[in-house]
Amino acid sequence: MKAEKFELSPPTLRELTAALKAPLAANFEHSNVEVVQCPDLRRAPFHLAMQGLSGNEKAADVGGQPNLFPTPIKESIWSLTDIAKAMEMSPEKGSLLGAGAGPFHQVGQNCELTPNISWQQSFENVHNGSYVAKIDPEVMDVRVIPSPSLNCALMINLFGSAGEPGEVIKVTARKRIGKQNSFTECIRRALHARYGDTQTISLGGVFLVRSGKIHYHIMPDFPADLPFKNFTHLNDWLEYRDFSIPTVCCSVLHSADPDKKMALRMEHTHCFSPNGQHAGGHYHFDVDPEGEIVEYEGYFTTAKVIYRLGRPAVTLEGDLHDELHQ
User: Fold this and answer.
1) Measured between alpha carbons, how far is 54 from 278 in angstroms, rounded to an integer?
2) Helix/strand/coil (H, E, C) string of 102-122?
3) What is the DSSP annotation of 189-258?
4) What is residue 87's DSSP assignment?
């Protein structure tokens, strides 16, 4: 994969906490932003593969939406451990979480992936806690299963770290009163409002949807009538579901694209039910009337470098996420 690297100099977590407080308070009746010690993410209610989010913190944007639209580039398949090596992560200890397209060649159909892995001593000694969300073609309903491999495809956004305990930003929010109905977009836009296009803040982490009805999409299998004719054709192909089931969400977001040169996906979040229920996929926003019920609890920290890996030669006009769901 072609590799591009951009070093970051993020503000302290306490400075970022101060930047987030007012925008969160304007959007939620109850909110709090503080710096805390990261809880053990291996335990309930998170059930992740890593203990924490600290140590050697990095972000990666791999592949991209042109690998899906207008014609899927099915040769775009990568191993998460190969991506970790391209991110210059240590083989002694590390972890990855994020959002991407699943290993369709092994699942048997196109699908969503919530990557969630850690390793000790070598890249061969991996704990794979990743989940796949797919549409069962027989009943046209969502199924969430453990990922059968360490592979991903088409596009993926990742946050990497040593997986160690350490300080993180804790964000809690309940009862939305503003118009920004995406938790992650509320955070991302708040950072952009504070730091603009001249300084990129990249966050990675996990949040819980504790309550509320949330809008997700799940990619079904690739359609027969390819290529996609336009965004409307693509949108009609996606399967949308609203779930009120609590989910664990892994997220990577950027306040700005460094020098507007890396063709980054600005926000990407995938979720799964930690209770074995068939709920999850690509997170969009809450759909609660007036936001009365929705409640979030998130833990994030900053990346110190961004890797742009396997950038497609073609750049789409705009972001598919924004085009389809604005």
Assistant:
1) 30
2) CCHHHHCCCCEEECEEEEECC
3) HHHHHHHTTTS--EEEEEEEEEES-EEEEE--SPPSSPSP-SHHHHHHHSEEEEE-S-EEEEEEEESS-G
4) T
pLDDT of amino acid 313: 84
CA–CA distance, 49 with 116 (Å, rounded to integer) = 6
Measured between alpha carbons, how far is 63 from 86 in angstroms, rounded to an integer? 13
Cβ of 156: how many Cβ atoms within 10 Å? 29
Supply the angle between the helices 183-195 and 13-27 in degrees, to the nearest 10: 120
pLDDT average, residue stretch 10-30: 98
Most confident stretch, 135-139, 199-203, 285-289: 199-203
Rounded distance, CA 7 to CA 305, Å?
4
- Please identify which residue in the block is written with the tokens 């991110």: 87
According to the model, what pLDDT value does residue 260 have? 75
Q: How many CB atoms lie within 10 A of CB 179?
A: 9
- Domain residues of the chain, as ranges? 3-325
Find, among 277, 253, 247, 280, the residue nearest to 266 by Cα: 253
> Across the strands, what pairs with 241?
216
Tokens, residue 131: 């989940």
- Local confidence band at 326 (pLDDT 50, 70, 90 cut-offs): very low
For domain 3-325, say whether CATH 3.30.1330.80 is its number. yes
pTM: 0.95
